Amino acid sequence: MSETPATASEKATAASAAPEQRQPRAANGHGDGSFGRALAAAREARGLSQADVAAQLRLHLKQVQAIEAEDVDALPEGPFVRGYVRNYAKLVDLPAEPLLALLNAKLKPTDPLPAPAGSPAVSPIQRTPGEPISGRIVIAGVIIALALLALFGWWAMRETAPRATPAATTPPIAPASAPAAMPSVAEAPAAAPEPAAPAAAATDSTPAAAPVAEPAPAAPSAVALRFTFRDRSWVEVRQADGTVLTSQNNAAGTARTVEGTPPYLLVIGNASKVDLEFRGERVDLAPATSRDGVARLRLE
Question: Across 93-224, where does the E strand assignment appear?
Fold first, then answer.
Protein backbone atom coordinates (compact mmCIF):
# COMPACT_ATOMS: atom_id res chain seq x y z
CA MET A 1 0.00 0.00 0.00
CA SER A 2 2.95 2.34 0.56
CA GLU A 3 4.07 1.97 -3.07
CA THR A 4 0.80 3.23 -4.48
CA PRO A 5 1.20 6.87 -3.38
CA ALA A 6 4.78 6.89 -4.68
CA THR A 7 3.67 5.55 -8.01
CA ALA A 8 0.93 8.15 -8.24
CA SER A 9 3.42 10.88 -7.34
CA GLU A 10 5.81 9.83 -10.09
CA LYS A 11 3.02 9.71 -12.63
CA ALA A 12 1.93 13.21 -11.68
CA THR A 13 5.50 14.49 -11.98
CA ALA A 14 5.91 12.83 -15.40
CA ALA A 15 2.56 14.22 -16.58
CA SER A 16 3.49 17.75 -15.51
CA ALA A 17 6.86 17.53 -17.27
CA ALA A 18 5.45 16.22 -20.54
CA PRO A 19 3.56 19.42 -21.47
CA GLU A 20 6.67 21.44 -20.69
CA GLN A 21 8.69 19.30 -23.11
CA ARG A 22 6.04 19.48 -25.82
CA GLN A 23 5.39 23.22 -25.44
CA PRO A 24 8.50 24.52 -27.29
CA ARG A 25 7.84 22.28 -30.27
CA ALA A 26 4.22 23.37 -30.47
CA ALA A 27 5.12 27.00 -29.99
CA ASN A 28 7.88 27.12 -32.56
CA GLY A 29 6.14 24.88 -35.09
CA HIS A 30 9.44 24.10 -36.82
CA GLY A 31 11.30 21.98 -34.30
CA ASP A 32 11.75 19.30 -36.96
CA GLY A 33 13.85 21.69 -39.14
CA SER A 34 11.22 22.17 -41.86
CA PHE A 35 9.98 25.71 -42.45
CA GLY A 36 7.53 24.46 -45.10
CA ARG A 37 5.75 22.01 -42.77
CA ALA A 38 5.67 24.66 -40.03
CA LEU A 39 3.92 27.12 -42.35
CA ALA A 40 1.53 24.44 -43.61
CA ALA A 41 0.62 23.38 -40.04
CA ALA A 42 0.00 26.98 -38.99
CA ARG A 43 -2.12 27.53 -42.10
CA GLU A 44 -4.24 24.46 -41.43
CA ALA A 45 -4.65 25.47 -37.77
CA ARG A 46 -6.25 28.71 -38.96
CA GLY A 47 -8.52 26.98 -41.43
CA LEU A 48 -6.86 28.52 -44.50
CA SER A 49 -6.31 26.74 -47.78
CA GLN A 50 -3.32 27.15 -50.04
CA ALA A 51 -5.49 29.16 -52.43
CA ASP A 52 -6.45 31.53 -49.58
CA VAL A 53 -2.78 32.13 -48.78
CA ALA A 54 -1.96 32.70 -52.46
CA ALA A 55 -4.75 35.24 -52.76
CA GLN A 56 -3.77 37.17 -49.62
CA LEU A 57 -0.04 37.18 -50.44
CA ARG A 58 -0.70 37.79 -54.15
CA LEU A 59 1.27 34.71 -55.12
CA HIS A 60 0.58 31.91 -57.58
CA LEU A 61 -0.88 28.76 -56.07
CA LYS A 62 2.13 26.79 -57.33
CA GLN A 63 4.46 29.13 -55.44
CA VAL A 64 2.61 28.52 -52.18
CA GLN A 65 2.78 24.76 -52.80
CA ALA A 66 6.53 25.02 -53.55
CA ILE A 67 7.14 26.95 -50.31
CA GLU A 68 5.37 24.34 -48.22
CA ALA A 69 7.16 21.55 -50.11
CA GLU A 70 10.48 23.47 -49.75
CA ASP A 71 11.05 23.12 -53.49
CA VAL A 72 13.46 26.06 -53.78
CA ASP A 73 14.30 25.16 -57.40
CA ALA A 74 10.72 25.98 -58.40
CA LEU A 75 10.89 29.38 -56.69
CA PRO A 76 12.58 32.62 -57.73
CA GLU A 77 15.95 33.81 -56.45
CA GLY A 78 16.82 33.93 -52.76
CA PRO A 79 15.74 37.53 -51.95
CA PHE A 80 12.29 36.92 -53.40
CA VAL A 81 11.86 33.60 -51.58
CA ARG A 82 12.83 35.20 -48.28
CA GLY A 83 10.19 37.86 -48.83
CA TYR A 84 7.57 35.20 -49.56
CA VAL A 85 8.44 33.22 -46.41
CA ARG A 86 8.52 36.36 -44.25
CA ASN A 87 5.06 37.44 -45.45
CA TYR A 88 3.71 33.90 -45.12
CA ALA A 89 4.97 33.73 -41.51
CA LYS A 90 3.40 37.09 -40.71
CA LEU A 91 0.08 35.89 -42.17
CA VAL A 92 -0.06 32.80 -39.93
CA ASP A 93 1.45 34.55 -36.86
CA LEU A 94 4.76 32.67 -36.77
CA PRO A 95 8.18 34.25 -36.00
CA ALA A 96 9.94 34.85 -39.30
CA GLU A 97 13.61 34.73 -38.27
CA PRO A 98 13.78 30.99 -37.34
CA LEU A 99 11.99 30.11 -40.56
CA LEU A 100 14.38 32.28 -42.59
CA ALA A 101 17.33 30.54 -40.93
CA LEU A 102 15.96 27.17 -42.05
CA LEU A 103 15.37 28.58 -45.53
CA ASN A 104 18.95 29.90 -45.83
CA ALA A 105 20.23 26.43 -45.09
CA LYS A 106 18.39 25.10 -48.15
CA LEU A 107 19.29 27.90 -50.56
CA LYS A 108 22.21 27.57 -52.97
CA PRO A 109 25.54 29.02 -51.77
CA THR A 110 25.54 31.42 -54.71
CA ASP A 111 22.35 33.12 -53.53
CA PRO A 112 23.12 36.44 -51.82
CA LEU A 113 22.67 36.33 -48.06
CA PRO A 114 21.10 39.23 -46.17
CA ALA A 115 23.63 41.83 -44.97
CA PRO A 116 24.35 41.79 -41.21
CA ALA A 117 22.73 44.51 -39.13
CA GLY A 118 24.83 47.66 -38.98
CA SER A 119 26.88 46.88 -42.09
CA PRO A 120 26.88 49.46 -44.89
CA ALA A 121 24.37 48.85 -47.65
CA VAL A 122 25.87 47.45 -50.80
CA SER A 123 24.05 48.25 -54.02
CA PRO A 124 23.54 45.62 -56.74
CA ILE A 125 25.82 47.65 -58.98
CA GLN A 126 28.67 47.25 -56.51
CA ARG A 127 28.10 43.49 -56.25
CA THR A 128 28.15 42.94 -60.02
CA PRO A 129 30.82 45.07 -61.70
CA GLY A 130 29.55 44.11 -65.14
CA GLU A 131 26.16 45.75 -64.71
CA PRO A 132 27.22 49.44 -64.60
CA ILE A 133 28.86 49.21 -68.01
CA SER A 134 25.79 47.74 -69.69
CA GLY A 135 23.52 50.11 -67.78
CA ARG A 136 25.52 53.13 -68.88
CA ILE A 137 25.48 51.93 -72.46
CA VAL A 138 21.69 51.63 -72.38
CA ILE A 139 21.31 55.08 -70.81
CA ALA A 140 23.70 56.63 -73.33
CA GLY A 141 21.79 54.99 -76.18
CA VAL A 142 18.49 56.35 -74.91
CA ILE A 143 19.94 59.87 -74.58
CA ILE A 144 21.37 59.75 -78.11
CA ALA A 145 18.04 58.50 -79.50
CA LEU A 146 16.14 61.32 -77.77
CA ALA A 147 18.63 63.88 -79.10
CA LEU A 148 18.23 62.55 -82.63
CA LEU A 149 14.44 62.67 -82.36
CA ALA A 150 14.57 66.27 -81.09
CA LEU A 151 16.91 67.25 -83.93
CA PHE A 152 14.67 65.61 -86.52
CA GLY A 153 11.57 67.35 -85.11
CA TRP A 154 13.32 70.72 -85.21
CA TRP A 155 14.43 70.15 -88.80
CA ALA A 156 10.92 69.10 -89.86
CA MET A 157 9.39 72.22 -88.30
CA ARG A 158 11.98 74.41 -90.00
CA GLU A 159 11.21 72.84 -93.37
CA THR A 160 7.45 73.23 -93.07
CA ALA A 161 7.44 76.76 -91.61
CA PRO A 162 8.34 78.66 -94.89
CA ARG A 163 5.69 76.72 -96.82
CA ALA A 164 2.94 77.72 -94.42
CA THR A 165 3.67 81.48 -94.73
CA PRO A 166 2.62 81.95 -98.39
CA ALA A 167 -0.49 79.83 -97.83
CA ALA A 168 -1.57 82.08 -94.98
CA THR A 169 -0.91 85.37 -96.83
CA THR A 170 -2.08 84.42 -100.32
CA PRO A 171 -5.92 84.24 -99.77
CA PRO A 172 -6.30 87.89 -98.63
CA ILE A 173 -4.36 89.14 -101.68
CA ALA A 174 -6.46 87.39 -104.33
CA PRO A 175 -9.90 88.94 -103.57
CA ALA A 176 -8.48 92.43 -103.27
CA SER A 177 -6.52 92.36 -106.52
CA ALA A 178 -9.24 90.86 -108.73
CA PRO A 179 -11.91 93.59 -108.29
CA ALA A 180 -9.26 96.32 -108.44
CA ALA A 181 -8.27 95.29 -111.93
CA MET A 182 -11.82 95.70 -113.38
CA PRO A 183 -12.16 99.47 -112.99
CA SER A 184 -8.88 99.94 -114.83
CA VAL A 185 -10.43 98.18 -117.83
CA ALA A 186 -13.46 100.45 -117.67
CA GLU A 187 -11.24 103.52 -117.53
CA ALA A 188 -9.28 102.41 -120.58
CA PRO A 189 -11.49 104.38 -123.09
CA ALA A 190 -10.71 107.57 -121.16
CA ALA A 191 -7.04 107.15 -121.98
CA ALA A 192 -7.70 106.93 -125.76
CA PRO A 193 -6.56 110.52 -126.58
CA GLU A 194 -3.04 109.76 -125.31
CA PRO A 195 -1.62 108.67 -128.74
CA ALA A 196 -1.97 112.30 -129.93
CA ALA A 197 0.26 113.49 -127.09
CA PRO A 198 3.61 112.66 -128.82
CA ALA A 199 2.64 114.78 -131.85
CA ALA A 200 1.84 117.72 -129.60
CA ALA A 201 5.03 117.18 -127.66
CA ALA A 202 7.06 117.20 -130.90
CA THR A 203 5.84 120.70 -131.90
CA ASP A 204 5.99 122.18 -128.39
CA SER A 205 9.04 122.68 -126.24
CA THR A 206 7.07 122.31 -122.96
CA PRO A 207 7.75 119.23 -120.75
CA ALA A 208 6.02 116.02 -121.79
CA ALA A 209 4.28 115.65 -118.42
CA ALA A 210 2.03 118.71 -118.98
CA PRO A 211 0.07 117.32 -122.02
CA VAL A 212 -0.49 113.98 -120.26
CA ALA A 213 -2.07 115.60 -117.18
CA GLU A 214 -4.38 117.99 -119.10
CA PRO A 215 -6.82 115.42 -120.62
CA ALA A 216 -7.59 113.85 -117.19
CA PRO A 217 -10.41 116.23 -116.17
CA ALA A 218 -12.22 115.77 -119.50
CA ALA A 219 -11.86 111.95 -119.51
CA PRO A 220 -15.10 110.91 -117.70
CA SER A 221 -18.19 110.70 -119.90
CA ALA A 222 -21.64 112.00 -119.02
CA VAL A 223 -22.68 108.64 -117.52
CA ALA A 224 -19.56 108.20 -115.37
CA LEU A 225 -19.77 108.01 -111.59
CA ARG A 226 -17.34 110.17 -109.59
CA PHE A 227 -16.75 109.33 -105.93
CA THR A 228 -14.94 111.56 -103.43
CA PHE A 229 -14.09 109.89 -100.12
CA ARG A 230 -13.82 112.01 -96.97
CA ASP A 231 -13.27 108.85 -94.90
CA ARG A 232 -12.56 105.18 -95.56
CA SER A 233 -15.44 103.56 -97.46
CA TRP A 234 -16.26 100.35 -99.28
CA VAL A 235 -17.97 100.72 -102.70
CA GLU A 236 -19.46 98.19 -105.13
CA VAL A 237 -20.84 99.22 -108.54
CA ARG A 238 -22.65 96.97 -111.05
CA GLN A 239 -23.64 98.11 -114.56
CA ALA A 240 -26.75 97.20 -116.59
CA ASP A 241 -25.66 93.65 -117.50
CA GLY A 242 -24.73 92.84 -113.89
CA THR A 243 -20.99 93.15 -114.38
CA VAL A 244 -19.15 94.34 -111.28
CA LEU A 245 -17.22 97.49 -112.23
CA THR A 246 -15.60 97.95 -108.83
CA SER A 247 -15.79 96.34 -105.41
CA GLN A 248 -13.13 97.55 -102.97
CA ASN A 249 -12.21 99.69 -99.98
CA ASN A 250 -11.20 103.30 -100.67
CA ALA A 251 -8.94 105.37 -98.45
CA ALA A 252 -9.88 108.74 -97.00
CA GLY A 253 -8.95 111.78 -99.15
CA THR A 254 -9.07 109.86 -102.45
CA ALA A 255 -11.35 110.16 -105.49
CA ARG A 256 -12.47 107.53 -107.97
CA THR A 257 -14.28 107.61 -111.32
CA VAL A 258 -16.20 104.57 -112.51
CA GLU A 259 -17.66 104.38 -116.01
CA GLY A 260 -19.97 101.79 -117.47
CA THR A 261 -23.46 101.28 -118.89
CA PRO A 262 -26.35 102.56 -116.76
CA PRO A 263 -28.50 101.82 -114.94
CA TYR A 264 -26.04 101.32 -112.08
CA LEU A 265 -26.63 99.41 -108.86
CA LEU A 266 -24.54 100.90 -106.05
CA VAL A 267 -23.69 99.72 -102.52
CA ILE A 268 -21.73 102.34 -100.54
CA GLY A 269 -20.42 101.77 -97.02
CA ASN A 270 -19.96 104.72 -94.63
CA ALA A 271 -22.14 106.65 -97.06
CA SER A 272 -22.22 109.81 -94.94
CA LYS A 273 -18.51 110.31 -95.70
CA VAL A 274 -18.85 109.86 -99.49
CA ASP A 275 -19.71 112.48 -102.14
CA LEU A 276 -21.16 111.12 -105.41
CA GLU A 277 -21.64 112.91 -108.75
CA PHE A 278 -23.65 111.48 -111.67
CA ARG A 279 -24.47 113.23 -114.97
CA GLY A 280 -22.85 116.39 -113.64
CA GLU A 281 -25.01 116.57 -110.50
CA ARG A 282 -24.41 115.65 -106.90
CA VAL A 283 -26.40 112.66 -105.69
CA ASP A 284 -27.96 112.82 -102.22
CA LEU A 285 -27.18 109.48 -100.50
CA ALA A 286 -29.08 110.19 -97.28
CA PRO A 287 -32.51 108.84 -98.42
CA ALA A 288 -30.88 105.55 -99.52
CA THR A 289 -28.73 105.11 -96.39
CA SER A 290 -29.79 102.56 -93.75
CA ARG A 291 -29.13 102.72 -90.02
CA ASP A 292 -25.88 100.86 -90.43
CA GLY A 293 -24.55 103.63 -92.69
CA VAL A 294 -24.77 101.61 -95.94
CA ALA A 295 -26.44 103.22 -98.96
CA ARG A 296 -28.07 101.05 -101.62
CA LEU A 297 -29.44 102.82 -104.72
CA ARG A 298 -30.04 102.58 -108.47
CA LEU A 299 -28.95 105.34 -110.90
CA GLU A 300 -30.18 105.50 -114.51
Answer: none
